[in-house]
Amino acid sequence: MIKQVLLASSLLALGVAVTGCASTAKGVKSSVVTQSVPQEALRADIPEGGVLAVIRYPAIVEESAKDIYHRAYAKRAIGGQTGKGVTNTIETVAVADSAVVKSNYFALSLYKELAAKLPEHAVLLSPHAIKLGPGGELTSEPLTAAEDLPSVVSIDFATYSFPDSKKMMGNVPLTFGDLVTPLVTVRTDHRASVPTQGLLMASRPLLSRAAAEGREAALQTIDALQRGDLDPVVPELDFISYITNDTPQDISVQSLATRSEKNATMVLPVEKVRIPASEMRLLDAASDGTVDPLDDIYTDALSRRVVALINGLDTDKAVMMGRAASISDFDPSLAALTFVGSDDADYAARVAYAERLLDAQRKYLSVQSLRIFDGVHNGELGAQVRDMISAEHDVLEKRRSLARQQNMATMMAIASVAGGIATGAGGGSSCRDARSQAEYNACVRRQRTRGAAASGMINAGIFAAQEAYSKAQLSQQVGNNFLNSIVPALEQQTTVTVDLLDSNETITAIRYEDLQTKLQDLYTAKQRSLETVATQCAYLEPGGQMRGTWLGVCEGGLANGSGAGVLEAGDEVMEYYGFAKNGLADGPGLMIRHTAIGSISYEGSFVQGRPDGTVRVSQSGRADKTRNFKAGVDSGASSQKAASPFEGLSGGAVN
Amino acid sequence: MLRASLILTACLAWPVLSLAQEAATTDELYGLAEARPVAADNQTRCIAQMAEFPTDDPTARYQFFQLISDTAYGADDQTRALFDHYGQPAVEPGTPVLSVIEDIANPVLRQAAPQVVVSSMNYLVDFASVCDVYITGQTDSLLAFDGSLANPELNSMIAEDALFLRQILSESLSRLGADGDAVWANAARQYSRSLVAQRDAVEFAAFETDIAELESLYMDDLDGRLARSNDVINSEMDREILGDAIQVSDDMSKAAMKRAKQERLYRLVRIFGGGG
Fold it and tell me: Which of A380, A388, A457 to mutate to test the interface with B (most CBs of B within 10 A)?
């Protein structure tokens, strides 16, 4: 009896320790993204020569990068610790590959929603290939030319699953069946949101890495400007940056619900969002791509938030560098003049031609995005992903059912063992006190009956504990069976995605190159001559010791007119857009200082290289403030409106 | 029609027009809010002046009416006064418009008698103004008869011709010394500046037409090619692979379930049968 109790208790303890109370991977019915969603229509126009949004997502993994990608995916798990040996098991590889397939599919839901809320040709898709960089490091690169055009915001979208398949029924992030865990970052050019390094919104795990990526991109563009190069930097996907564990960067943050004026990045929690059963039924029944299971529960709200973010930005600042870079491809003498513009009639005429030319490129590339959407979402590929989601859902439901059975068995085991111990303990009195033989016999019979009941209950407990353990094992087996079996289908989906995107890009690129040549010819034939052209010369710091680079109007080898200047002074890197005189910032301008602790912008009046007059100051974690400066020294608050080099021309124009 | 296209062009080329305030091609900037003559009162005169217009070819007829309309477009009181002053002697009333246009385009007259160019242009402007209802009626009817006349390329060409005539006028005014005349210099300069803006607008409209053609050609072509490519690649997709994978997974899970059931029975017997 004692032996049985000990065995049952041990088994129960082991069972509870091993299986615990099984989770049914419920997910959340309502994402925080869908709560208090801003319902504002787009107020901004499509910026001249640019688009409003580019959606970047992992679409394929190059063969040579697969192993490193799988290992990095397993190593940098989000939402918990992986068990030992989770590196490149078949299950982990399937999870990592499935994350790419699902990202490739669900990013299109965001595209659809955003395209519906923005003007025609204002959103582009930028699928990325995960590949090895020149040093053998994992990175990602865009497969199309979508990111060659300037965009007001870029959105990184991926869906995520925890790499340890043993924990997939727990509370870890999962994108499987009716569960989707989106990872999102929304950024703009750092010049449009200096204090946040351009990072407007990010899922919590990606936050610090995305902030660092923003800073690195900013510094790289400044380096390029220093060399007289206007080429924009296209950062790798934030998700790839996260799994490769690059150096993070601190940044001021606020929650989605916060309505504050302070300059901070909005944080999205990692959420396992559950698609409603009704939507899953529709998806099961649908024969085409008309059912989007993600729009109502996530992407519609996210796209509305993106629209609100765009409304809050100065779109011209957001695209000015990208636009100048695009223009420099066919008209270098005009490019740097476009930062702040000019009131010369010849400039205005020429820039109208240039912008029309960029507009043609934008429309052309948007056709490619529409066809990528169509090919992936509405073709066989999309149908197969939807079939896979349905199959995953069946597996998940099976496992949920097993988890419920397991929990029932665990409860039974606890109850039975506890009952058995209590029953056994209740029969502990000795029959030696019986006063007659009959009394003694009755006592022995009672004790035997009680013992048999206790033994039966303990046996039931042992059985239930073993049953709970068995259900947990079976659930795991069902999950593993699926992940093991699905590998060929995942491989096929990957192959078709590669073929589809490669073919799309090849066809587009050949014709795009041809179109660009024709546009260039047309532009060259029709353009007016410019009286004032942009060149490269020296840009000075107020002390005059440090010399930087100025791209814009020059006179006597020094900045003299409109343009952009960059300068390194000690630990600080400084960039300036606006007007200059004798090599120094002078007139309305935007100056950005990048220091070790963050970036600060000053927009307003400058005299002899220093802020002088009313200046708007923006820095991280604080609301923007308007200050009065005298020779670079802050002399208190100002109630005046600060001048801007981007709002038409005023006092500081030299030419 | 062309007026509409010019206005549209002016909107597209807003930087040009907004920065050069004096230069304009719109009613607002020319101040054409004043009352216009009623055409019905001048019916006989208008019909007589249109007598020699082309009648057999709708395109030529449309071009002609549109050219007059574009040439005279935007002339305000100040401009008319300028033309009256330098365009002496005035063209004989009732002179057919066709011969007046021929006079303007005549290079010898342009060089030798710039005042004839000014008076001819003044006559044209007057005709366009007085007979506006007839001219508009003719162009509208012709457009309704043949929709292809709305072709931006044709209208850009007409606008360029009108601009050419206006430039001849501007040069003639300059030749007659309007630029240096304290009374008329401002009006002459304003007219000259408006031509620069108009030329920009017309050239941009032509560029816009060319680029729109390219755009349309390339976008349609790309769309078709990508659609075909997508179809071909999607047709390579083997639905059975996923079906097979799911079937294998189901079979394996069913087998595992069966095994678990058997083990359950065995455990049940073992535990309750005393084996445990």
Answer: A380
